[in-house]
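Q&A log
Question type: sequence-to-structure
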Amino acid sequence: MGKKKSRKNRNKRKQQQEQKSGMDRNTMVMGAILVIVLGFWGFSQLGGNDYPDEIKGVFYDGAVVSQETGRVTVPEDVVEMNKLTFVDIKLDNRTEIFTYIGREIDLTTYRDAEYLPLIIISTPKGKTISGIRVCEPCLSFSFEMVDGKYLRCDLCGTIWDIETLQGLSGRCMNFPPPKLTTGIMNGVVIEAGSIGLGF
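Response status: OK
Response body:
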């Protein structure tokens, strides 16, 4: 009778251990699922793909212009926040037409030819690009970002890749905003002096 009782106790303990290990496995699986779900949620909150689909340009009038070098400086946080920043730089002299990198830029229809319109783009991949804010063939000075990856002229609808300014569609594909050398040093620094105009 003692042997039957001890065998029964062993069987009972074995069943309890199997049930306990089954619960441990279930707990581990549920824990792993919870970690994956929370990880995905956390990643999306901390900067997954949070780049907006549609962005209108925002004018910034606090740019600092160096009289000696023609460098234009805009705070980096302003550029990153706006994604698409427009800056107008007052010219020393009224300038209707000038040539830059072989392209003829006509300012006669923009603010009485007294300002140089600039564009600064903070791209989805984290690059900062700047240039002269103009689409020469249609004389447009206004752009927007669409689908989170394209720059579009507001007048003719031409579309360029936002990372490279490579033309993709439209009649002015070969005329993206002419690029200017851009760097980051105590803000976004644009080498506008290379244009050869006085500010």
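Response note: Confidence is low (pLDDT under 50) at residues 44-48.
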